[in-house]
Design brief:
Oligomer: single chain
Order of helices and strands: HEEEEEEEEEEEEEEEEEEEEE
Distance between the termini: 91 Å
């Protein structure tokens, strides 16, 4: 027995070492990389997010083999600034995991910055029209009217919830957005940009509702959501989600934060799918205050459903 004990200890130690072997497998190289000049001195680089199974914790962006930016895993686009006008650039991206393993470089994406325009302070016109449609539960296609500028449009930026999520080239009047969530209402706007980085006002907003994914059931977002400001008040209207049972609670978000739960009392709960549901808020904030509002319903299972479209208003005296 005295002689076998060290062997047992050795076997246990060997088994432990096998369970904690170092992770040396690198993640896959990022796919779908694109590069678009946004101005005479900047290029917008985008790529597809890595698969969750790769355990990616960050990305590295390289220009001509030189590391120029590092980003966390939730960022899949970046503006590379401080560039030279009328110059060709090529960019690659690598993914890194928690163990420090780096992927092979992505395919290279090239872009050429336009010429600089001295003393250009005039912004382009806003795109006059925006349309959109869902392409399944996780994608949408947008199109917009071309903008004009005294020195020429160099890019179109797509915004959702006030955040830029995509940049298209100066000759493009449409794009496909991927990586969206099922059963979600997205509100998109488009801005034009020129070579001096002047951005236009937002073009008209367009709502796109992605359908539920297979087996998910009916949509849960309040539809046809509107917000109207009047002296000392804001009136909200919407269509209740058609979940098969009445919905008596709605959570209101203002400027991205939950502020109240709207509750309908007994006998006043809107039926499932009912149109013209209305709620009036009393407000004390000063006139001129800007609000962004969206709404979601508490579902029959007690969870919150998908958000409505987002609406922007300015409070009035």
């Amino acid at each position: 027995m005295r002689r076998t004990a060290p062997l047992l200890v050795l076997l246990a130690a060997t088994g432990l070492a096998a369970c904690t072997a170092a992770d040396t497998r690198p993640p896959a190289a990022p796919a779908g990389i694109t590069a678009q000049a946004g101005s005479a001195t900047s290029v917008h680089v985008m790529w597809q997010a890595s698969a969750a199974a790769d355990g990616v914790t960050g990305y590295q962006v390289f220009q001509a083999g030189r590391l120029v930016r590092e980003l966390p895993a939730d960022k899949t686009m970046v503006d590379i600034t401080g560039l030279t006008p009328q110059t060709a650039y090529a960019f690659t991206v690598r993914a890194r995991d928690a163990a420090g393993n780096a992927s092979a470089p992505s395919a290279a994406a090239a872009a050429t910055t336009p010429a600089a325009k001295a003393e250009d302070r005039q912004a382009p016109s806003a795109p006059a029209r925006t349309t959109g449609r869902a392409d399944g539960p996780r994608a949408a296609t947008l199109s917009w009217a071309a903008a004009t500028d005294d020195t020429g449009v160099t890019a179109y930026d797509v915004y959702q919830g006030g955040i830029r999520i995509h940049t298209a080239g100066p000759t493009e009047t449409g794009t496909t957005l991927t990586g969206l969530q099922p059963d979600t209402v997205y509100t998109f706007t488009v801005r034009a940009r020129d070579g001096a980085d002047n951005s236009s006002p937002d073009g008209p907003a367009v709502d796109v509702t992605t359908p539920p994914s297979a087996g998910q059931g009916p949509g849960t977002a309040p539809a046809e959501f509107t917000a109207t400001a009047s002296p000392g008040a804001v009136t909200l209207t919407w269509t209740a989600p058609d979940t098969g049972r009445p919905t008596g609670e709605y959570e209101l978000h203002v400027n991205g934060r939950p502020v109240t739960v709207i509750q309908f009392g007994a006998g006043a709960v809107p039926p499932s799918g009912a149109a013209g549901v209305e709620h009036r808020l009393t407000v004390t904030e000063p006139a001129g205050t800007q609000w962004t509002l969206k709404l979601r319903a508490r579902l029959p299972d007690g969870t919150w459903g998908a958000f409505s479209a987002e609406r922007r208003i300015v409070l009035v005296p």
